[in-house]
Amino acid sequence: MQLVAGADADAFEVILERHADAAFSLAYRMCGRRSLAEDVAQEGFLALWRSAGRYDRARGSVRTWTLGIVHNRAIDALRRTSVHDRRRANDDVQEQELEAPERTDVQAMSNAASEEIRIALGELPTEQRHVIELAYFGGFTHTEIASMLDTPIGTVKGRMRLGLEKLRGHLGGWQAVGA
Amino acid sequence: MSSRDESVGCERSVDAAPYVLGALADAERYREHLADCASCRSQVAELQLVADTLPASVPLIRAPEALRQRVLATVRSEAELLRAAGSRTEEPPARAGRRRSLRVSLLGGGLAIAATAAAAVAITIGLRSTTHERVRTAHIAASIQGAQASLRQTGSRAELVVSGMPQPPLGEIYEVWLARSSAPPQPTDALFGVTSSGSGSVNIPGNLHGVQEVMVTREPLGGTSRPTNPPLLRVAL
Q1: Which terminus of chain B has fewer CB atoms gathered within 10 Å of its CB, N or C?
Q2: Which chain B residue shows the shortest CA-CA distance from A35?
């Protein structure tokens, strides 16, 4: 990253190659449309290139930082659309489970840690997993989620917290993929 | 000002989970609170580690090759300009100022080729430079690949300069929006078209204080109060 901060395009290409698939996958999961996911991922990588000097190794891996940027960009993009459209896109992605032609591009993540996270998420009580997914992947605010689910705000926040704490218990000391 | 003790609970700790998930509606205020509350900082740090694992639960899809190529083309172009800017910073300031005046004059004449070249010079001068004019390049949507845009800010004045933009369809025009925090983008009265060669410029009205992004969308003639199309270009401030 030091080289990237020094405007070394070759060094950036290595980072792009290493993290492009994960970044695009996250953007697609959140946005539900390939064209918007491409825009989000593109903006994310260009932001990374232009702000590489701000990367702090002590605060996480390059992959975590990259995906954090892409996540924020996707939230920005999602919040420019109506709650209704966002909910539909979120539901569509979950229902499709990446049907053809995307499925041909899908690779099962061989990383055991990723499988572990999927299992841990799946084992959460439905209401806790639901609020976490709506928040993190759907880009909904806690007040929007409370309204959508007709649930008190405090309950929504509590479910988020309980869900994350259970995930932490499942995952033990495991940290971000590619760290 | 003393930092709140980590061992003492804080009533705002309930906001830690929605915050790390990116879902806290008033995230900015909580961020300010974190500066003064060790208890919340500690909880955010712990929960953030968990939130950071969530992307790994997503099925992996191969990123389109065109996306990689677009990103790399922009990066290589900017790296080249930065190298050029590095050599130009040794020039006397007066000469650099004369070059900017020339650029403005050429743009005023509406010469598309000159505008494109000038935009490159503007980026050269502005990126990571120390001149009074600050230039930021725009993120371009995949749908108008090949277009370029930059925002030039001098004091309180800002101008958006574009090149290679397609003509808006009949009955439509480009509209500039200002986005602050997570609030919906605010419309401006900056509406513009482009020349047959795709170049154009428009002054950004109002104060950019607190603005996080300047965006452009395609809208019906006369503009709208809410975006009806996705942004074609965005400049992060």
Answers
A1: N
A2: B142
Chain A residues with CB under 8 Å of B141 CB are 39
Sheet of B133-137: strands edge to edge? Answer: B133-137, B148-154, B157-163, B200-204
Q: Coil, strand or helix: which one is A175?
A: coil
**pLDDT confidence band for A92 (50 / 70 / 90):** low
- Chain B residues in contact with A149 (beta carbon < 8 A): none
Q: Report the distance separating Cα B146 and Cα B236, nearest Å.
A: 19
Residue B106, SS3? helix
* Rama region for B33: left / alpha / beta (φ>0; ψ in -120 to 50; rest): alpha
Count of positions (residues) in chain A = 179
Q: Which residues pair with B150 in a beta bridge?
A: B137, B161
Cα A129 from Cα A113, distance rounded (Å): 18
> Which residues lie below 8 Å from residue A139, measured CB to CB, with a gap of 6+?
A30, A74, A75, A78, A79, A86, B22
Contact B142 A121 (CB under 8 A): no
DSSP state of B7: T
Give the 3-state secondary structure of residue B23. Answer: coil
Whether residue B55 and residue A71 make contact (CB cut-off 8 A), yes or no, is: yes
Are B15 and A157 in contact by the 8 Å Cβ rule? The answer is yes
Buried b (16+ CB within 10 A) or exposed e, B69-85: ebbbebbeebbebbeeb
Kindly tell me the sign of the dihedral angle through the C-alpha atoms of A47, A48, A50, A52.
positive
Phi and psi torsions of B161, nearest 5°:
-120, 130
| Structure confidence by residue, pLDDT tens digits, A61-74 | 899 999 999 999 99
- What ipTM was reported for this prediction? 0.85
pTM of the entire predicted model: 0.62
Q: Which of B141, B145, B191, B194 has the alpha carbon at shortest distance from B167?
A: B194
- String of DSSP letters for B41-79: HHHHHHHHHHHTTGGGGSPB-PPPHHHHHHHHHHHHHHH
